[in-house]
Write a structure and sequence with these properties.
- There is one protein chain.
- The protein is of the alpha/beta class.
- It folds into three domains: 26-128, Serine Threonine Protein Phosphatase 5, Tetratricopeptide repeat; 162-296, Rossmann fold, CATH 3.40.50; 318-404, 2-Layer Sandwich (Alpha-Beta Plaits).
- 47% of the residues lie in helices and 18% in strands.
- It has helices spanning 9-19, 24-41, 45-58, 63-75, 79-92, 97-109, 113-126, 131-144, 147-160, 204-207, 230-233, 251-264, 271-277, 281-296, 334-344, 367-376; strands at residues 163-166, 174-180, 186-190, 195-199, 214-220, 239-242, 268-270, 318-328, 348-353, 359-366, 385-393, 402-404.
- A five-stranded mixed β-sheet has the order 1-5-2-6-7, with helices on both faces.
- Helix 12 links the parallel strand 6 and strand 7.
- Helix 5 (79-92) runs antiparallel to helix 6.
- The longest helix has 18 residues, at 24-41.
- The chain is globular.
Length: 408
């Protein structure tokens, strides 16, 4: 008896359509889109706008055209026009992460909390393995006044990324386990910059360590209650630095920190001890460095503390900084991501790939604008994995505008 096919007519029709070569008009549109992207990559904004206008006249509902238009409108301070373009694109590109990331950013900047959360939810659904996006969603819930939902998503993010390894940028001389506590920390979300921060006790101490020679393994102790086996997955460390604030609310986390040091059989330094000795941030960093070397039995080495590059520089003082970014930063859209961040934050600068696999950038702006960007650089786009960031003053030409340069 002959078997009847259960394949639907729609499936067969879709297969035939997929096998059909693109029409000459579609090929022409794709070539024009590629030309627009090339112009944007080379900071030829006027040319990109002209080409985009021509393409819009041919097909105003082209979703890729709408996405590019929305992106340019965002860059030129036209949020309402950008919102219209991106919403129109989203109807045809429901599974495009870039569309929903831009929608979440725009809605947040315009104060549309519920719409921003909805767009961020869609982005997280499209990128379920990206812990950074889940942390962002948690912070947005906290900022909008929904701490229960915020804590829920924070726990989900911690399960995906309970610890992070920030490798030494040069020769490793010391490996430090930094202990944090997400539950007792304050989640902050800056809608205009579209970034989150986890505000906690003595969080500045890790940033004062020598990034060139110290590898940091940062662990949230919150995750150990349900996943005690996590300690076996940690890389070997020389010493433990506990930066959890010494308050009654953190008693359980502080006990867990002591437990971690005992289980790993490594010396423990509590940052509260350093804060009790001095209120000066630079002196606290010096003390932390000295104690870490002493406890680990490592001979101290000379290095300059990573203090602001211009002494006495206020938040309005223009600075030009040189960024060296190492890790998986090529072939993952990192340059375009950083260029978009510069544009959104109204910071001048350029970025390029280097032959050794790293990326280099020079940025110019006020400290108030540059600091949040430097904080965001280790995150990057979804598939990036930044393992090192070295920031130094730049003595060369001051950049103007935003540009992606050719690989050096």
């Amino acid at each position: 008896m002959a078997r009847t096919s259960k394949k639907s007519p729609n499936t067969a029709r879709q297969r035939r359509q997929a096998a059909m070569p693109p029409s000459p008009l579609a090929q022409q549109s794709q070539q024009q889109l590629d030309n627009i992207r090339t112009a944007l990559d080379h900071d030829q904004t006027e040319l990109a706008v002209t080409l985009l206008a021509t393409l819009q006249q041919q097909d105003p509902a082209n979703p890729q055209v709408l996405l590019l238009a929305g992106t340019l409108q965002m860059q030129h301070g036209k949020p309402q026009e950008a919102l219209s373009s991106l919403l129109s694109a989203s109807y045809q590109l429901p599974n495009h992460p870039e569309v929903h990331e831009r929608l979440a950013r725009l809605h947040a900047q315009l104060g549309h909390d519920r719409a921003a959360l909805s767009a961020m939810h869609r982005l997280v659904a499209l990128r379920p393995s990206n812990a950074q996006g889940i942390f962002q969603l948690a912070a947005m819930y906290h900022e909008a006044g929904y701490p229960t939902q915020g804590d829920l998503w924070a726990r989900r993010a911690l399960l995906k990324r309970p610890f992070v390894v920030i490798n030494a940028e040069r020769e490793e001389k010391l490996r430090v386990l930094v202990l944090r506590n997400a539950a007792a920390s304050q989640w902050r979300f800056d809608a205009q910059q579209f970034r989150y921060a986890l505000v906690q006790g003595h969080r500045h101490l890790p940033g004062g360590l020598d990034a060139a020679h110290i590898t940091r393994v940062e662990l949230f102790v919150d995750t150990l209650e349900n996943t005690p086996e996590l300690l076996r997955k940690l890389p070997a460390v020389d010493v433990v630095l506990n930066i959890i604030e010494d308050t009654p609310a953190n008693n359980a986390a502080l006990s867990m920190a002591t437990h971690v040091a005992e289980r790993l059989n490594r010396p423990l330094i509590h940052s509260a001890e350093l804060v009790d000795e001095t209120q000066d941030t630079e002196q606290q960093a010096e003390l932390a460095y000295a104690r870490l070397c002493e406890k680990a039995g490592v001979v101290p080495w000379a290095f300059e503390l990573p203090v602001p590059p211009v002494a006495g520089a206020g938040s309005d003082t223009p600075l030009t900084l040189h960024l060296m970014i190492t890790g998986t930063v090529q072939g993952v859209g990192y340059r375009q991501w950083l260029a978009d961040e510069l544009t959104q934050r109204e910071i001048a600068g350029w970025v390029r790939n280097l032959a050794d696999g790293s990326a280099e950038a020079v940025i110019h702006g006020t400290l108030e604008r540059l600091q949040p960007l430097c904080d965001a650089v280790p995150s990057g786009p979804e598939n990036a994995n930044v393992t090192g960031l070295n920031v130094t003053p730049w003595e060369g030409d001051t950049p103007e505008g935003v540009a992606i340069l050719e690989t050096l």
